[in-house]
Design brief:
The protein has 2 domains: about 50 residues, no CATH class; about 70 residues, Beta-lactamase Inhibitory Protein, Chain:B, domain 1 (2-Layer Sandwich), CATH 3.30.1450. The protein has about 140 residues and is an alpha+beta fold. The chain starts with a helix and ends in an 11-residue tail after the last strand.
Amino acid sequence: MNFQKILIPVAGVAAVAVAYNLAGWSGVAVIATGLVMWLLLHFTRMMNVLKRAANQPIGYVASAVMLNAKLQPGMTLLHVIAMTRSLGQLQSEKDVQPEVFCWTDGTQSHVTCTFVGGKLASHELFRPTAVQLPPAP
């Protein structure tokens, strides 16, 4: 179970209650202003990441090897989209857990990422095998 979905709203309500007890309605106004500012900062970051990703082809990354090196379990999908500056190519069925996304670079190397609940559970790098060319005459 994801405790952040519970703890953050509970902490916000507790902060408002403490502010009311200490400073009355002016304390509530200060805390509410701070909470709204925090929400707006997160919303603005999400919109900027998605705006940058909208300008790239779906599933494209500059270097799959570098992406593979930077990925760590527990990263959010939004963080991975910010790193790749591209939306991933959905490999699994829509709205089914786990979600599997793929990013491919110009050499046809690709990284397949599995997300469970919006967090990176695993990732795998696939590199094409070198094709033997016939000797030049």
